[in-house]
Amino acid sequence: MSDRPAILEVRDLHAWYGESHILHGVNFAVGEGEVVSLLGRNGAGKTTTLRAIMGLVGRRTGAIKHRGDEIVSLTPDRIARRGIAYCPEERGIFASLTVEENLMLPPVVQPGGLPVEEIYELFPNLKERRTGASGTRLSGGEQQMLAIGRILRTGAKLLLLDEPTEGLAPVIVQQIGASVRRLRDLGFTILLVEQNFHFAARLADRHYVIEHGVVVDRYSRDDINQRMGELNKLLGV
Amino acid sequence: MQTILGIPAPLLFGQLLIGLINGAFYALLSLGLAVIFGVLNVINFAHGALYMMGAFVGWFLLTHLGIGYWPALVLAPLVVGAIGIVIERTMLSRLYDLDHLYGLLLTFGLALIIEGLFINYYGVSGQPYAPPQALQGGYNLGFMFLPAYRGWVIVASLIVCFGTWLLIERTQLGAYLRAAVERPELVRAFGINVPLMMTLTYGFAVALAGFAGILAAPVYTVSPIMGQNLIIVVFAIVVIGGLGSILGSIVTGLGIGLVEGLTRTFWPEASSTVVFVIMAIVLILRPHGLFGRPRE
Amino acid sequence: MSEAVMNLRSRGGRRATSWILAAIGLAIIIVAPLIGLYPVFLMKLMCFALFACAFNLMLGYVGLLSFGHAAFFGMGAYVAGHAVKVWGVTTVLGIFGGAVVAGIMGLVFGAIAIRQKGIYFAMITLALAQMVYFFCLQAPFTHGEDGIQGIPRGTILGLVDLRNSLAMYYFVAAIFLAGFLVVYRTIHSPFGQTLKGIRENEARMVSLGYPVARFKVLAFTISATLTGLAGATKAIVFQTATLTDVHWHMSGEVVLMTLIGGMGTIFGPVVGAGIIITLQNYLATMGSWVTVVMGTIFVICVLTFRRGVVGEILARLK
Amino acid sequence: MRLTKLALATTALVGLATGAAQAEISDGVIKIGVLNDRSGLYADLSGEGSVVAARMAVEDFGGDLQVEILSADHQNKPDVGSSIARQWIDQDGVDLIIDVPTSSVALAVQQVTSDTDTAFISSGAATTALTNDQCAPTFVHWTYDTYALSVGTGKAVVEQGGDSWFFLTADYAFGHQLEADTKRVVEENGGQVVGQVRHPLSTTDFSSFLLQAQSSGAKVIGLANAGGDTTNAIKQANSFGIVQGGQQLAALLGFITDVHALGLDVAQGLTLTTGFYWDRTDESREFSERFGERMNGQMPTMVHAGVYSAVAHYLKAAAEIDDDGGKAVVDQMKTVPVNDFFAENGEIRADGRMIHDMYLVQVKTPEESEKPWDYYNILATIPAAEAFQPLEQSTCSLVTN
């Protein structure tokens, strides 16, 4: 466990979609200011874990503590209001909103969010495409930047990022990696779901591996190089 | 006298103006339907019944409480909106996860109940409702006599339609709505109480129907069956405009009013069928309506 | 292996159950008028049950809600009525003609509407039906709001006089059973299986190379034909064909019947039609409360038992 | 035909037996079924009011006849109406079906009653087909029909100077017939028809049609429609200042409940033909006030008054011959003139038409009206002989054979 105070603590989390039981008791914790990644194969339950934290699954049990308070029974909007922001895998850019409207959509939930100028600084591409165009006219990379950018304004300190690099060109992946590092420097706590292990390895302080809906292993940044072999096996790389 | 296609020009202009007046009612009603479909994914069959209720609330206020037209213009939509909120909270909200046919069927049942109850208590002949003093009489426009009240109908409904459009397209609240139409779950995860927003949206949209009802009370007879036939036409308009398209519903509402007006001049018998013909043609050529876009 | 056996056994069991049910149903149909049930009422019930079954073929098995089935029902009635009364054709031929015309209309409607889904499909069928309604209002042969009245019941091949209630009853029962059998066969044929496949996952069926649109149009045509058959029979039973039969309220009523009985079940529409027709009959003295009661049933149905009476029973039995 | 013969035979038998046995009324009770619209367009002009009127007639009749009243809503659906009628007759032993507005339903019921030798008196239906092609020996048409309405209004209005007409016609058979009949009468009396416009059934907005009527310059705008169409047209004509502009509105089918719904402000000046007005004589006032006590102060329409009058006449005839066979009673009814608050020297003709005086009335201005429901000035009385289709024009088989 990290030495920093836990901002998020998940214990014995179970989650269901309709009749199907997806998570079977997930346990992990994220410390204040950390970047933590959830690794695992396709269908292992990584995305479901993020969605369960946000309250976006059919049913869930167990304990999710945010800054010491139990949030497992709250509705998604109440969870968001506590300062947790979610960036979904499919990015969720709204076609009927312009780029700027997309950026300005999430309401400010707590003081201390990034000013819009700073977000444009972080993602200069967005500034150029700001006016006129509908959000879905953007390229995949730009959409991803928009999806991350818009949750920085709200003042949420804990960001849940679901596969930010999926399907993007290497140069864009690098750019996003740089932004995430910058966000950590700015004091954001980030829980990252990744398939791209190499991307995650360079960014995250710690890693959890999920398989069949349970956490099967964890690695610190330092462990990684030594235990590369077993990790590769776990992830089926 | 100048004629256009064999019809005296003044008569033609008169018909167009009248078409516009009807279009104004259509626009108000179809706007509400479009908003409800867009945000809640429900085809609100009860819209006609709620429109009728708006007219009846106005009549009731006047007859039993002595409250006149102008206060009723505000009160009737509020009352109808409140009823809508109750309907949404207690019934509709349970159906969102299901096929939208269920919403259609539920509201169809509600329409039967509401209309049945009103027929039971008030009969079908209808109740009189006079236009307010200030709007009696009319203007001679040269080509036709325009009753002042009808002029007011156009103005009021255009203001409300345009206001609603601005609200939805140009404000933050509207952005939430539009976003919630696409991905309600994500919008909720941004910290917005989407269920509450849906409730209020339904309340607002049926309040629009109530507004149309009180606006219509002095023009048509206030009768429990006044919404029954109208609702089918308004459905057609929303479909032509493209389900869920706000601008589409307003423009199509006005447009259909004009087309009906013209049909009444050239081929009166067909005037109530023409909207269905247009609808069939539009759906064949553009399956998602004139302003609609495909949705999954 | 054992699972397969179980499956087979339960399927065999289900088949046996449905045979037993069918036998009971048949027995009821044969005996009903003899034990004092009112034949005219029963005939009406069967006409609407057939109507609902035909409608259910679209809603329950193809997953398309048609809000315009009244057009086929009413047209079937008008054609049969006009043919028998004015052209003097025999009753059987008249009913056949009604069904055929409705079927042709179904083909045309289907070809126009079939690209649409969900609400759009409901709306375009409604639009087309409204056009038919206005046609019927205008066309001279329908006699406007008077309707076609005094349609003679005639005879079957000159042998059986259908003015006799009981004879008429068994004639209608035969038509109903024939229609019901067609629905049953359609559902339990490879064609029916394909329809179910389309309902479950249309994209997959397309990728498997099925001409999905053609299947849907065919289903729609069968449904329309049987609906026309029901309407034509009703016209002969009541000796009238009127605008009520083509009005969109009629389209709404058949949805209610199917929903309350259980869409996508074989017997659901029959039960639903039974409930609604009985209610209409016994609530007739209550005036406008009929509408209120029907609306309430609609609402309760949608909110609490969406599977309908039969669907709910089947679910409990499982 | 076979059935009719059977019925005749039965009647003959019954006739023979009357001398011996006392009560030949089947099951000892006369059952009257009031079948009308209780939830739709015609619920106010018939509906519960007709049931009340029938009940009053039974109470007023007194006597030692046992009478029972049933009622049902036919929902304006012919199949519902005819199945209720069948069931009443087959299962409940109903002897008389009364009222039945909506032409299609009345025609369907006619079929059933004539097949089963049950008496049928229509007060609410308008179509003349009931006493022409579709007539029956068991049937009486009591209150009005399209012919009476069009003749009454057409002739009287032309005589009063309204000699150029424009028709606003509901585009279906009823409207067409009303228009054609009126047009003929108008032209026969020296008037002319300058134009007409056909509007779809259940139109909500009449302004375009009214505009055409207005620009035609006709003195009279004839409304050949019914129910909501008529009231909406009148209401909108008022807002377009048509009556103030010097044109006269004539409703070819209008009821006092329509006027009540419109209010005098809007309806004033309207002319229409009616078979009954409550405030016409002492007798009619007396009845109407009793009726009003049971109906929250509502005054009877001509349909309600007709139901009372018809039931009373039926009971008298049934008691007289002590029989409840449909044709038998109707035959008896035809032999006795009708004399009550509704009709003076009314007569039921061979084709089943009850002929009586009709009245051309004009709706009062709000200033003229002195009490609730004080709505009409009677302009003219149309004598029974002129008001209805002449018997020699009837295509009824009872007349032509």
From TrEMBL, chain A:
Assigned keywords, A-Z: Amino-acid transport, ATP-binding, Nucleotide-binding, Transport
Domain of life: Bacteria
Gene3D superfamilies: P-loop containing nucleotide triphosphate hydrolases
One Gene Ontology MF term: branched-chain amino acid transmembrane transporter activity
A Pfam family hit: ABC_tran
InterPro entries in UniProt: AAA+_ATPase, ABC_transporter-like_ATP-bd, ABC_transporter-like_CS, BCAA_Transport_ATP-bd_LivF, P-loop_NTPase
One of the GO biological process terms: L-amino acid transport
Domain ABC transporter: 8-237
Assigned protein family: Belongs to the ABC transporter superfamily.
Protein's name in the database: Branched-chain amino acid transport ATP-binding protein LivF
Biological classification of the source: Bacteria, Pseudomonadati, Pseudomonadota, Alphaproteobacteria, Hyphomicrobiales
Automatic annotation (TrEMBL), chain B:
Protein name (record): High-affinity branched-chain amino acid transport system permease protein LivH
Membrane topology: Multi-pass membrane protein
Protein family (similarity comment): Belongs to the binding-protein-dependent transport system permease family. LivHM subfamily.
Transmembrane segments annotated in the record for this chain: 12-35, 68-88, 100-122, 149-168, 189-218, 230-259, 266-285
Domain of life: Bacteria
A biological process term (GO) from this entry: amino acid transport
Higher taxonomy: Bacteria, Pseudomonadati, Pseudomonadota, Alphaproteobacteria, Hyphomicrobiales
Subcellular location, record wording: Cell membrane
Family matches, as Pfam families: BPD_transp_2
Single GO MF annotation: transmembrane transporter activity
Presence of keyword Membrane: yes
InterPro entries attached to this UniProt entry: ABC_transp_permease (IPR001851), BCAA_transport_permease (IPR052157)
UniProtKB/TrEMBL annotation, chain C:
Higher taxonomy: Bacteria, Pseudomonadati, Pseudomonadota, Alphaproteobacteria, Hyphomicrobiales
Signal peptide range: none
Transmembrane stretches, start-end: 20-41, 48-80, 86-112, 119-141, 167-187, 254-277, 289-309
GO cellular component: plasma membrane
Membrane-topology annotation of the record: Multi-pass membrane protein
Domain of life: Bacteria
Organism: Lutibaculum baratangense AMV1
GO MF, one annotated term: branched-chain amino acid transmembrane transporter activity
Listed name of the protein: Branched-chain amino acid transport system permease protein LivM
Subcellular location(s) of the protein: Cell membrane
InterPro entries, per the entry: ABC_transp_permease, LivM-like
UniProtKB/TrEMBL annotation, chain D:
CDD domains for the chain: PBP1_SBP-like (cd06327)
GO biological process, alphabetically ordered: amino acid transport
Keyword terms, alphabetized: Amino-acid transport, Signal, Transport
Signal peptide range in chain numbering: 1-23
Domain Leucine-binding protein: 30-364
Keyword Transmembrane tagged: no
Protein's UniProt keywords contain Iron: no
Matches recorded under InterPro entries: BCAA_transport, Leu-bd, Peripla_BP_I
Pfam families: Peripla_BP_6 (PF13458)
Family of this protein: Belongs to the leucine-binding protein family.
Name this protein carries in UniProt: Leucine-, isoleucine-, valine-, threonine-, and alanine-binding protein
Organism from which the protein derives: Lutibaculum baratangense AMV1
